[in-house]
Amino acid sequence: MTLEHPAYGAIREVSPFASVVLAENPGYMTLDGTNTWILRAPDSPGCVIVDPGPDDEAHLRRVASAGPVDLILITHRHIDHTEGIDSLARLVQAPVRGLRPEDCRDASPLEAGERLDVSGLTLEVLSAPGHTADSMMFTADVSGERALLTGDTILGRGTTVLDAYDGDLGAYLETLDQILDLGSGIVGLPGHGPETSDVAAVALEYKAHREERLEQIRAALRVLGNDVTAREVVEHVYSDVGQHLWPAAEASVRVQLAYLRQRA
């Protein structure tokens, strides 16, 4: 039987070189839960893990069962992706690499443009700031078949909330352009939600959505004044969104207001 998303308690094969373990940490920010990706060429004994996920023993043991693990990669600092770093590293005895030194174990931080030849794969490290300042993406290329591991830059459904602490809309729009430059037909392997068949098409939709929201905020500023708070904008612009989502919307609006005010 072929498993489909969401599939808890199982390793779900997505392609000949990518499988996913869905953590049981659903929520309005994590959707169905955090995706932990397992990558390996079809003839490779070892694998690469992308984002350990939460420090949940059952989840991490399921991930470890796909071993041996050659390398663990981190897309960004958010705890639902990184909490399990130490437990998984101990289980599988593998090095961990992310952009931030504090996320690394027995290995150096990642560098943009770096090429990783591991587990029969060729991975390229792409800087992808916007959702967070430390966000990274990874292209995977096996025998001409390409995929992009997007972390939270592109999700399997819905749109991404930019972090209130270090999210940057200008940088995020540039990251979306970087995805578009990769071309069409590349499978998207996101940090949350199901895989997407054409990640560039999703990036184009995201850009249109961001532009639409920015125009709505510009209109709100014309009505409410330039000194309006993010909460007041949310109440004006996001009236069609459930109030349980307003805290996330408010964080996103703060980032959008900063973007507009920087360019005023």
UniProtKB/TrEMBL annotation:
<keyword id="KW-0378">Hydrolase</keyword>
<dbReference type="InterPro" id="IPR001279">
    <property type="entry name" value="Metallo-B-lactamas"/>
</dbReference>
<protein>
    <submittedName>
        <fullName>Glyoxylase-like metal-dependent hydrolase (Beta-lactamase superfamily II)</fullName>
    </submittedName>
</protein>
<dbReference type="InterPro" id="IPR041516">
    <property type="entry name" value="LACTB2_WH"/>
</dbReference>
<dbReference type="InterPro" id="IPR050662">
    <property type="entry name" value="Sec-metab_biosynth-thioest"/>
</dbReference>
<dbReference type="InterPro" id="IPR036388">
    <property type="entry name" value="WH-like_DNA-bd_sf"/>
</dbReference>
<feature type="domain" description="Metallo-beta-lactamase">
    <location>
        <begin position="33"/>
        <end position="192"/>
    </location>
</feature>
<dbReference type="InterPro" id="IPR036866">
    <property type="entry name" value="RibonucZ/Hydroxyglut_hydro"/>
</dbReference>
<dbReference type="GO" id="GO:0016787">
    <property type="term" value="F:hydrolase activity"/>
</dbReference>
<dbReference type="Pfam" id="PF17778">
    <property type="entry name" value="WHD_BLACT"/>
</dbReference>
<dbReference type="Pfam" id="PF00753">
    <property type="entry name" value="Lactamase_B"/>
</dbReference>
